[in-house]
Every structure is written in C-alpha cells, then in structure tokens.
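Interim report to the steering committee. The following record documents the input for Septum formation family protein (279 residues).
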Amino acid sequence: MNRILAAVLASTLVVGGLAGCSGDDSPEQPAASSSTSATTSASPSAAAARPQLPRDRACYRLDYAEAVAPTVDAPAISCERPHTSMTYAVGRLDTVVDGHLLAVDSTRVRTQVAETCPERFAAFVGGTTEDQRLSMLRPVWFTPTVEESDAGASWFRCDVVALAADEELAPLTGRLQGVLGRADGRDRYAMCGTAAPGTKEFERVICSADHSWRAVATVPFDGERYPGVEKVRSAGDGPCQDAGADAADGDLDYKWGYEWPTAQQWQAGQHYGLCWAPS
C-alpha cells in the first residue's frame, strides 16, 4: 500500500500502457465540541511490449483500495463516463543516483513521487491552502510495477480523487483544474460530518452526502516536531469559537467543534486542526 498516502487519507477523514481521454480538463482524530531511465537495446517485439507512458488528464474508475495502492492496472475511460480519478500530472522518475540504478520501489524513488504529486496537486486544484485542507479532494500517485520498470518504464502518475467517506471514493464531476478557486467547487467537494466531532455518531463525509456539521476553518501549527496533545488541543479554542460564531451569522446561540491532530496524523503530514460548525 502507498503508506504515506494511506496515512494521510486516514488522518483527514487530515500507475503502464494507459489510454487517455478528453474531457473538461483537457490540457489548455480526537475532537471536542462545545455549545527507470536506463538505456537498453530492444527488439521490435520487446519495444512493443514496453509499457507506455500514462496520459495526462486521463480518467479512471478506481475504488479506494486501488487508489491507495502503489501501482494500478485499471484502464482509462472516457471522462464523460462516471469516474473517480483523473490524472493531473505525469513525469519521469529519477532512478539513477551516482551512476547506480535505483529500484522503482526504493525509498528514494517513492519519496520523490510522494513530494512531487502533492506540490502539483495544489497548483492544479487551486484555492488557498485552507481551501484544500477543508475539501475532500486528495492527491494519489502511482509508479510502474517492478516488472514494468524492468521492461523500461520510468514514469510516475499523479491523480486527484475525492473521498466520499471513510475508505470510499466519490464520483468526480465538472472541471477539476482550479476547482477549489471557485465557490461552487469548494462547496461540491467540501468536508462535512454526520454529527458533532468527537461523538460516537460522527463520520467524515463529503458535503453532497447527508450531514449535520461542516469543517469551516483550520488551525495551522508551525515547526516539524509534534507540539504535544495539550498544546494542539488548547490551540483551537479561540479560533474555532470565532469560526463557529462566523458560521452562525450573528446568532448568539451557536455551537462549534474542534479536531486536533494526533501524533500519528502529524507524522503523516497533517500539521493543522479542524474547526467545525453545524450545517
């Protein structure tokens, strides 16, 4: 499993030979609530068998398990058909270091992709960092299998998916490039909850599903080391109370909630808490 991705997906509830398609995006937690590029010669038959570079803006119908796997063999489909994944970037792996060829599943190669795809994701979906953290859109990434790499494949593929709920993907609709820079896009893929955070009934869901609470703001933290439970827990009191008041639109009787990052979530990359309000 794509371990870094799987951890991030869990904390926020904080890929050979694929044909492309043309679509709308063709190139142009604890909580509280309160009131390989090696060159080889190949015969024609070997060259024909070599996996092809994935196409940018291709669409796929993946399930959650496929989305968090390091490799995937699902075929591309028309973006006009129901789909749960769209490729937003394709690149070449840097698999040669000091003259030595690295395995496609080596830590260094995997880290390269795990850093590049989230960076390109932010530029693709648009919006602010907070807009991205308050949405259910997530980057996922794939590389060739070891067998495909041995046959000459040396690419990585970055896809965008939307979480519908825990370990479930939502269908993608509309234009995705710059989607979080638009109000309708932020609403379509917003993060909501089935109950107040911290309660037994709480489940994180996309806002197009039945819900009663919505994530309305984030509480960011600086530094690389986990601040400790007490600090991350208390940091949300003021900001989330204010966010709850803003969401109440002037009503003096309002509720708010706060989810702070655990040490495990912090290690997975979630360096922020979430403020919630009834929706």
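The chain has a mean pLDDT of 85. The committee is asked to note this result when reviewing the revised timeline.
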